[in-house]
Design goal:
This protein has about 110 residues and is α+β, with helices and mostly antiparallel strands. It has a single domain, classed as Alpha-Beta Plaits. Helix content is about 20%, strand content about 35%. The model has no long low-confidence stretch (mean pLDDT about 90). It binds adenosine-5'-triphosphate and magnesium ion. Adenosine-5'-triphosphate binds next to β5 and β6.
């Protein structure tokens, strides 16, 4: 299994959620975060306004998916989150050792 963690533009969250739902990805965690990439200290546009602050509002998505679906999920996520402008975000991919569904002790892929 892989954990796919993506930091995206907040206004892209609905598009990304819909695109992932369309390919049958159900479980996810969404957190409002603040961050910066390599333009630290430079101007970035957020909701049509230019900001010079170095921490901008972003949304972090976390999903654990079967390894054989991870490339498809990443492609879908990137395509739906991209505007082509700086600050579009980033995807981090991790190996996952195990998953346990608390309700019934399901383990691994069956727990996703
Ligand atoms: N190396 C990193 N480690 C952790 N979080 C990061 C890293 N790079 C970017 N992020 C997170 O992703 C958000 C968006 O990054 P961003 O898209 O600006 O990356 P970038 O490398 O500057 O690319 P771009 O040139 O397209 O802006 C940041 O605000 C931050 O929350
Ligand atoms: Mg950037």
């Amino acid at each position: 299994m892989k954990k796919i963690e993506a930091v995206i533009q907040p206004h892209k969250l609905e598009d990304v959620k819909q695109a992932l739902k369309a390919i049958g990805i159900d479980g996810m965690t969404v957190t409002e975060v603040r961050g910066h990439g390599r333009q630290k200290g430079h101007k970035e546009v957020y909701r049509g306004q230019e900001y010079e602050v170095d921490l901008l509002p972003k949304v972090k998505l976390e999903m654990v998916v079967p390894t054989e679906r991870s490339e498809e999920v990443i492609k879908t996520l990137v395509a739906s989150a991209r505007t082509g402008k700086i600050g579009d975000g980033k995807v981090f991919v991790f190996d996952v050792l195990d998953v346990i569904r608390i309700r019934n002790d399901d383990r691994g892929d069956s727990a996703l």
